[in-house]
Design a protein that fits this description.
The complex is a heterodimer of chains A (66) and B (131).
Chain A: E1 2-3, H1 5-11, H2 16-23, H3 27-34, H4 42-52, H5 56-59, E2 60-61
Chain B: H1 6-10, H2 14-35, H3 42-49, H4 52-68, H5 71-100, H6 111-130
Helix pairs in contact in B: 2-3, 2-4, 5-6
Classes of the chains: A mainly alpha (66), B mainly alpha (131).
Chain lengths: 66, 131
């Protein structure tokens, strides 16, 4: 699954640590999410959407194969 | 909004560190008392098993640590534990069968370091996978 978390974070001038604190996860998890190495659970995806004030489907885009 | 501070990083590790210190202290005392020549019987068994009391707290502190992790790190740990579980089973069963072929008998103390080694490999693999 692809996402635009890095782009949204950059627009707000947040560091990975700042976003991690807002989501109550580690900085490594933010890094893995941004690189597409880890797909979040549904509760975390909702939390991410809430932090950015967007809908989940505006942030996460399934791969062509999904 | 929770903030990551030095204290928030250190706090989840405190029960683990204290339990480990307790284990080391009780183990040293237990070995020294046993070396003084306690006769076989209930007292010797009790003193021999004494380090397992702080070890129980150690187990509880590791569970607490796992519960304090975020979802990605919990998945990483699950995969590392799965590797350790399967790897240890493969090695210990293989060696058990080799003992039937005349290989020397090993103490049960060798099992946990082996499992720990597989767990470390699993954590490193997970960190590379999710970095």
């Amino acid at each position: 699954m692809n996402n635009i978390i890095q782009e949204l974070r950059a627009k707000r001038n947040w560091s990975q640590m700042e976003l991690a604190n807002r989501l109550d996860v580690s900085r490594q998890t933010i890094n893995a999410l941004e690189r597409g190495r880890y797909d979040p659970s549904l509760p975390l995806a909702f939390k991410i959407a809430r932090v950015f004030g967007l809908a989940i489907e505006e942030i996460f885009v399934p791969d062509a194969t999904e | 909004m929770p903030h990551t501070t030095r204290l928030s990083i250190v706090r989840p590790w405190l029960p683990f560190v204290l339990s480990m210190l307790g284990y080391i202290v009780v183990l040293i005392i237990s070995l020294r008392v046993l070396a003084q020549g306690i006769p076989d019987g209930a007292m010797r068994v009790t003193i021999s098993l004494a380090p397992m009391v702080p070890a129980l707290f150690l187990g509880w502190s590791i569970l607490s640590l796992i519960r304090s992790l975020d979802e990605m790190h919990r998945r990483l740990q699950l995969e590392a534990f799965a590797l350790a579980f399967a790897g240890t089973a493969l090695v210990t069963f293989s060696y058990g069968f080799l003992e039937n072929a005349g290989f020397p008998k090993l103490t049960a103390f060798t099992v946990w370091p082996l499992m720990c080694g597989f767990w470390i490999v699993g954590v490193v693999m997970g960190r590379l996978r999710y970095r």
